[in-house]
Automatic annotation (TrEMBL):
Domain Peptidase S24/S26A/S26B/S26C: 122-195
Protein name: Peptidase S24/S26A/S26B/S26C domain-containing protein
Pfam families: Peptidase_S24
UniProt keywords, alphabetically: DNA-binding, Transcription, Transcription regulation
UniProt key word Transcription regulation: yes
GO MF annotation list: DNA binding
């Protein structure tokens, strides 16, 4: 999936202009984009909206998620950017971190969502949004992204291998790419980040209490 900043660089490259020129085109002060790219920090959501308005040939869905084609085709329908509301449109968002106990919060019948995110690709029954911190899944999922999750009840050994899942055990919660281990009764938890500080783990399937499919992620835009 990469991240939005790298896709903004792709747009500038495709247009044959520098990041500085792109900043001027969207009315941003010098350094708004370049500093964020160099430092790996967030940009305000308004610049993403202005970028989409000024460069309508690029797919908003691709810009936000990295999925699909970079360029929109003539027949492509208008893609709606994600928005937040309190009127039950879309799917619920809980302002909690997955690693910090999301599963406890979402299963608490007394806890209401903080609001709803209306984003058509993920407006599906059973989908919920929450925060994710940490760097182990970069560049696919960045620190501070929000992720769309849906609980799955199929035993993990029968789920599609190599996909990204949220794993809950008695001791911890983590988001990793999951594959079966050669050791019977175990699965491998594989980080995307190739840095030496992030290593693959093998855990017994019997430790796993819940599994959530990670359907996608976007940068926090609110």
């Amino acid at each position: 999936m990469g991240n939005i900043l790298s896709r903004i660089q792709d747009i500038a490259s495709n247009e044959g202009i520098t990041i500085g020129a792109l900043e001027r085109c969207i009315g941003a002060s010098k350094g708004v984009l370049s500093r964020a790219i160099n430092n790996g920090t967030d940009i305000q959501s308004k610049w993403i909206s202005i970028l989409v308005e000024n460069y309508p040939q690029y797919s908003p869905a691709w810009l936000l998620t990295g999925e699909g084609n970079m360029l929109r085709v003539e027949s492509e329908k208008e893609v709606k950017l994600p928005s937040v509301n309190q009127t039950y449109e879309g799917t619920p968002y809980f302002n909690v971190d997955f690693i910090g106990g999301f599963d406890v919060i979402v299963n608490d019948q007394t806890r209401n969502p903080d609001f709803y995110i209306n984003y058509p690709p993920y407006n599906q029954e059973g989908v919920v949004w929450c925060n994710l911190t940490g760097h182990s899944m970069e560049p696919e999922i960045s620190n501070g992204d929000i992720i769309a999750l849906r609980e799955v009840t199929t035993p993990i050994q029968y789920l599609p291998a190599g996909e990204i899942y949220g794993i809950v055990t008695e001791e911890y919660r983590t988001v990793k790419r999951v594959r079966l281990s050669q050791k019977e009764g175990y699965v491998r938890l594989i980080p995307s980040n190739k840095s030496e500080e992030f290593c693959e783990q093998e855990i017994p399937i019997s430790m796993i209490l819940k599994v959530y499919a990670v359907l996608g992620s976007i940068r926090k835009f609110f």
